[in-house]
Amino acid sequence: EAGVTQSPTHLIKTRGQQATLRCSPISGHTSVYWYQQALGLGLQFLLWYDEGEERNRGNFPPRFSGRQFPNYSSELNVNALELEDSALYLCASTPTGGLIGSNQPQHFGDGTRLSIL
Amino acid sequence: GENVEQHPSTLSVQEGDSAVIKCTYSDSASNYFPWYKQELGKRPQLIIDIRSNVGEKKDQRIAVTLNKTAKHFSLHITETQPEDSAVYFCAASIYNFNKFYFGSGTKLNVKP
Fold first, then answer.
1. Strand A74-78 relative to strand A31-37: parallel, antiparallel, unpaired?
2. Cβ of A105 under 8 Å from any chain B Cβ?
C-alpha cells in the first residue's frame, strides 16, 4: 500500500509570502495531522483534521491554517511567512480519529522542507 | 496541556552495548506512548508503542517500560548495532484528543 505522500519536497519562499503544502494520507485513513520540525528540534503539533473538519490545533498563530478535502487529502497554508517558519513540515495519518484514533500509531510522510529567505 | 521531556539529548554507545532513553510526561490522562525512530533525512517511523494498561512491551531487541505512577516511560535497546544510529522521539497522547506531544528527541550514535 502507498504510504503518506507530501508535496512539494522543497519549497523556497520569501518573507511575507504565502505557502501551500499538500498531503495525501494512506488509502482508507481519514485522520490527518500536521507537524512542524524546526532544525535540530522535536515535532511540534500543528493541526488535526478528521472527516473534513479541523478537530484540534497546537499553539501556532492563526496564519497557520489548512483544510481537508472529501478524499481526505489535506492542505496546510502558511500566510505572511516569517524567517522562523523555516522548518520541515510533516504530515501523518491514522485510520480514524476520536476514541480509537488517539491510540493508534501515526504514519508519517517524508515532509516538505520550507525555506524562508 | 501535556509536557513531555526526553533525556538524554545525545547518547553514544559502543556496538553491542545497551541504550536507554527516558521520557517523563505531566498529564495523568495520557494513555498511549509511541516511540519513533528518525534516520537522517527520513520520515519518523514507529518502532514500538505501549498503552497505559500495560507495564512493559518487548519486540526483539527493543523494549518499552511504563510507570504510570511516576509518569515516565523508557525505551531500551539491547545489543545495539550501527544501524540503530538515529534520532529517537517519544510521544504521549491523551485519550480522544488525538494531540500527540513529542519529546525533543535523542540522537543515538552507535560506534562500531
1. unpaired
2. yes
